[in-house]
Structure formats: C-alpha cells, structure tokens
Design goal:
The protein is an alpha+beta fold. The protein has three domains: 52 residues; 30 residues; 76 residues, Alpha-Beta Plaits (2-Layer Sandwich). Strand 4 and strand 5 form a beta hairpin.
Length: 191
C-alpha cells in the first residue's frame, strides 16, 4: 500500500505513541516494503513489551518501597551480609496480622438463584457475635432478600450451598432458622 509507512507513522503519533523508540523499532523490525498491517503489528508488539517492562518495574519499586518502610518502622533488620531478619516488633505484628486473617469474615457476595418459592431467614445472634450478625445481614441483602425486621428476612431465592457452609464454619447454625414456603397461607384462600 502506497503511503503505508507514512500512515503508520502519522497514526502512531496521533494515537500518542508514548515513545518514538517504539515507532522506530516497529518500522525497522517490519522490514523494507512491509505492509501497513505488519507495521501496526510490530508497533503493538513493541508497545506491549514496553508496558510489560513498566509493570514489572513498578512491582519491583513497590517491593523495595515496602522493604524500606519495614526497616524504617523497625520491623526487619538487614545484617552486613544483606540477609533480612524479623525483629521482636515484627514478630508481634506478624502474630496480630495472622490473628486478624483468621478472624476475617467470608465474602458477602454469593450467586443466589431466583426461585419460585419464598424463603424466610430468621436469626437471633448474641450481641458478642456482632461482626457475624452484620456479615449475615449484608450477605442476605446482597442475595436479594428483603428485611422485614432486623432479624427476619424474606426473599424468593435459593440459598447457595457455600452460604450454608459458611454459616456452619462461623458456628451460626444454632442461631439461624431457614424456612421455605411451599404453599400459600390459609388466610389468602378465605379472602
């Protein structure tokens, strides 16, 4: 295609090619008489490679930044052989972080399946388990159930097995009752 190199050059400049180096590499690696498509391919390949190097560089920078902060805060020390070791303060923080991770609540998002039958979830979780109670409310709301009272929720969804498993893992099964309504109430038939 006549003017293909000029077109590739102008488009790259117009598109904001971040480096003229990418453009020059593309033109040189495409070879003499290369098609417009080949030049575009080489430009994209060079741009992706540069971006990948940039991402890797940012990851390395974050790593060294974190090391600097850990040293500054006295959580790790480096000996003369450049070997890192954790300090007493670092060990205490490590234990607190491990404990926090063990006490972390499961995700509040589940894929609830629409269901023709109504489900009622009633619970009475003690005040000392407030975090678990708040997790349960957020989870029920995210699954599309409606709060009729703070501890009584109603919806037309099939509760996922993962949700039930997490109730057991959190030891909440003795405080939670789940009902599925299969028939309409008797009052509806009278009216």
């Amino acid at each position: 295609m006549k003017g293909g190199r000029a077109l590739a050059l102008l488009e790259a400049i117009h598109g904001g090619a971040t480096g003229s180096v990418d453009l020059i590499k593309a033109l040189l690696s495409a070879g003499y008489g290369a098609s417009y498509g080949k030049m575009q391919y080489e430009l994209r390949k060079n741009t992706r490679a540069r971006e990948a190097r940039s991402v890797a560089r940012k990851s390395i920078d974050r790593y060294y930044s974190m090391l600097y902060k850990l040293k500054r805060d006295g959580l790790i020390v480096e000996n003369e052989s450049k070997i890192l070791r954790i300090t007493k303060n670092g060990e205490r923080l490590l234990e607190r972080l491990k404990s926090r991770m063990q006490n972390q609540m499961p995700a509040t998002r589940y894929r609830a399946i629409a269901h023709g039958r109504s489900v009622i979830v009633a619970f009475d979780i003690p005040e000392v388990e407030r975090r678990k109670r708040n997790w349960l409310r957020a989870t029920l709301q995210n699954m599309g159930l409606t709060m009729t009272q703070k501890s009584l929720w109603l919806g037309k969804v099939k509760l996922p097995k993962e949700f039930i498993d997490n109730l057991q893992m959190l030891k909440l099964t003795e405080f939670v009752e789940i009902f599925e309504i299969t028939k309409a109430g008797s009052l509806k038939h009278i009216l």
